[in-house]
Design goal:
This protein is of the alpha/beta class and 219 residues long. It has a single domain, classed as Rossmann fold (3-Layer(aba) Sandwich). It is 30% helix and 16% strand. A 6-stranded mixed beta sheet has the order 3-2-4-1-5-6, with helices on both faces. Helix 2 links the parallel strand 2 and strand 3. The two termini are 29 Å apart. The C terminus is likely disordered.
Amino acid sequence: MDLYLVRHGESNIPQDAIQHDYPLSPLGLEQARRLGERFRGMKLDRLITTPYQRTQQTASAVAATTGVQLIEEPGLGAIDAGEMHSVPYSQRKERWPEFFKNPSPLMDYSHFGGESASAFFERVTGAFVEQIWEEHWREKVAVMVVCHAETINVLLHHILRIPFDGWMAFSIDHTSVTFLDVRLDRPRVRYVNDTSHLGDLSRGHSGTYGGEAPKERPR
């Protein structure tokens, strides 16, 4: 199996809002177009995406140049941030004063009614093992998953057998490609976070989580 893990393009997130389910921005649409051109004519056996506008639009650009249909897999979706999805950055410290006295840099939203890092890890790895690994690891197939920076981090931790505590150890830019394959019955990482298809659009990290870059909970 050849496995491509792709992050979605840049979203059009309103000022002071947190990422939830926003469509691609004009820049994100161009990033997605260039991603599609990178894979034009390539034989993909499965193109899997998550149930969000930003991933669906990004995956559609690949579908347009490869002719493969989209398959939706909710288990690989973004982490659930609970109430934090609906509370602007500017109101957060007032809403949760005790938490923000000593905010954690780890990706854990259980305090806000969302997912903990461990729950997110279990959900994503469970879906990956059941829907992708067990289905295809012995086969000569090419699979692409268009998903999220945190999803790709979890999958890399899982494959490399690195404990995951919620820290985003891998920088994953918009529409970057991370490539793994399976040889001699074992997975191997070929490259991570490649954005060569973006050309002049690739000017460093593009991982801003919301309309205003968060200082207390990097993602």
